[in-house]
Amino acid sequence: MPLLEVKNLHVEVGGKKILDGLTLTIEKGQVAAIMGPNGSGKSTLAYVLAGKEDYVVTEGDVKLDSQSILELAPDERAAKGLFLAFQYPVEVPGVATMTFLRTALNAQRKARGESEYSTPQFIKLVNETAGKLGINQEMLRRAVNVGFSGGEKKRNEILQMAVLQPRIAVLDETDSGLDIDALKIVADGVNRLRSPERSMMVITHYQRLLNYIVPDAVHVLARGRVVKSGGKELALELDASGYAQFADEAA
Amino acid sequence: MNVDVRSSKTDAEKVLARAFAATRDKLPGKGAVAALREDAFKRFDVRGLPHRRIEEWKYTDLRALMREAKPLADPAGTKPKDVGIAPVANRIDATLVTIVNGRYEPSWGNSDVSDPRITLAELFKFLAENPEYKLGQTPGSDDTALSLNTALMTGGVALRVKKGTSAKKPIHIAHVFFGDAAAAVYPRSLVIVEPNAQLTVIESYCGPQGLDYQVNAALELVIGDGAQVTHIKIGCDGDQALRVSSLGVTVGGEANYKDFAFTLGGAVVRNQTFVRFSGEGTVGLIDGASLLRGKQHVDNTLVVNHAAGGCFSRERFKSVLDDESHAIFQGKIIVEPHAQKTDAKMMTRALILSDEAEADNKPELEIFADDVQCGHGATAGPLDKTLKFYLMSRGIPENEAEALLIRAFIGEVVEDVAHEALREAIMVAALEWLGNGP
Fold first, then answer.
1. Residue B385 and residue B391: Cα distance in Å, rounded?
2. What secondary structure letter does DSSP report for A214?
3. What does residue A32 show for φ and ψ, rounded to 5 degrees?
4. I want to staple B28 with a disulfide (CB 3.0 to 4.6 A). Which of A223, A227, B124, B269 is the partner?
5. Alpha carbon of residue A78 to chain centroid
6. How does DSSP classify residue B344?
7. How far is CA B234 from the centre of its chain?
């Protein structure tokens, strides 16, 4: 059963067409890798799914549980279970990580008509998850991402994902800027969240990440649309042959 | 020197001159104080109200903003049920020193003068009994608005904390305007913190809504060697009020001086702070936060003079502006030729929530020593869209995301207010302010 359906999606940013009829389906419980060369529209897809301003959908639709989400504000999409792990996580000076997580979790729960977490419940949840990701108390007390290293910021994204428990997680180049040890920690964190109830869209330029997060499906993006789909072996093929073939095909 | 001799006086200036002529003999203080008044009035009379061509007053043209000079306020009389202390500071556990309509009214507060470590007295009584202390010894005395205060000052307190001691409680000097008719008040106070003594002093301003009363207040703060002093100014004036409040500070060596100015109310507010570091090895942290809406005009002007070497100072001023409000920050750091190893940095940021609001930032450095570390930074702009999107993408609704970001913006300076209850009260006031927003 499809959880996320992207149908013939056309998106412009600043008058420039970036997505050009992108169609893609992610099944419930599926981990789908989105691969493609720079400029193919991978990050645009991530942002447009999350509802970023200035990304104008000119045609097509995006459905979550068979319902269009394009008219929803970013917070409403989040409450419906969509989560974007940012390629470049933002520093939020003055907002402690704990406050941020708690505000976000309770806002989502409130929007869904669920009860808010109590303080002890919440602290227990965060501490357990943070421990597994190697995020210490000191980092939780600090302002969100402020003064964090690249690896710490990525781990913090995964922490947020683990606390918010989304139904579909979009991981935008979560591997970029990570050394191999950090990559393993992040991948372990992601793998722990794999579940038959949760889907993931793993956006990456390189096959390397997919050694650790093994996908159920691989889609290749070029010039704003999906040009090839296949199983996990497609990622290995791409690693050997590169993206040049798709650039030519699309041109 | 910005001397501007003019042949014609504004109506307000004429009223002020008449007020001085009529009251000079009745105003408190004889001898040195009376001479100081005469001098100060001459200075004011020559220059008139400061206006936009005076660089220090460029953005706060008092000649235009103060078309009318209100008559001197009468003493307040009997204590009412509700004294009307600034709400942000009225629940703080402090020795409450009330200055009502520019005069010390001990019966309105709870000034406990039994603390042997402090001397607390009516200003002019104190000066008469302790001739070794004089007014006008702190920087800024030459400023025209401060000169007007000196000419017309009606009362206030003198507070002295004895060498090596610490006042039992923070001292809250609460200025209240009381009455139904608009009038002008000229309170003046002197705070002396002797060497190695400690003090937290809160200076607050409050008055009725809908009344265009005028406040020209001044506080002199003399900080001895090794003393630790926190001064917090809370401005909660009525929405039609005009307030100029001057603060002159001299800081000795190896001292620790923290200052925070929080401004919430008033139609026109000018906080002007003049600091001189006169001994080596002192740390000074001077912060401010202002929240403006409607047509509010809030000017924080700061002159920090490093007159001795090896001092460390940080200045951070933040403002949040909505509607058609206007915030000004002028900050000048002066490093005198012999003040080597000075480390001084100044930062000002304005968060602009409306297209009609205006923020002017004017940082200046005047460095005459060669072995120093000095810098300044200024930013002004709307809420960061990227930050807002990040918060919203986690499920936080737009209005909550904005509130969280504004709170964080202000929080960066409020968090460093060491007095916990006051810090929380300031944050609560800021949140209430946000809640009342559009």
1. 10
2. -
3. -110, 130
4. B124
5. 12
6. E
7. 8
Question: Left (φ > 0), alpha (ψ -120 to 50) or beta: where does A208 sit?
Answer: alpha
Q: B389: which chain A residues are within 8 Å (Cβ-Cβ)?
A: 50, 52-53, 74
- Is the CB of residue A103 less than 8 Å away from at least one CB of chain B? yes
Query: DSSP 3-state assignment of A54?
Result: coil
Answer whether A92 sits within 8 Å of B405, measured CB to CB.
Answer: yes
Q: Which residues of B touch A164 (CB under 8 A)?
A: 394-395
Query: Degrees (nearest 5) of the Cα angle B395, B396, B400?
Result: 165
Residue A234: CA atoms inside 13 Å, Cβ hemisphere, count? Answer: 19
- Name every chain A residue with its beta carbon within 8 A of the beta carbon of B385: 53
Q: At what angle do helices B398-414 and A97-111 cross, to 10 degrees?
A: 160
Q: Which amino acid is at A237?
A: E
Cα separation, B424 vs B56, whole angstroms: 33
Residue A171 and residue A202 in contact, taking contact as beta carbons nearer than 8 Å: yes
**Rounded to whole angstroms, how far apart are CA atoms A74 and B398?**
9
Residue-wise pLDDT tens digits, B31-82 = 999 999 999 999 999 999 999 999 999 999 999 999 999 999 999 888 888 8
Q: Among A22-26, A127-131, B147-151, B280-284, which stretch is predicted with the lowest mean pLDDT?
A: A127-131
User: Could you give the count of Cα atoms lying within 13 Å of B414 in the half-sphere of its Cβ?
Assistant: 26
What is the tens place of the pLDDT at every residue in B183-227? 999 999 999 999 999 999 999 999 999 999 999 999 999 999 999
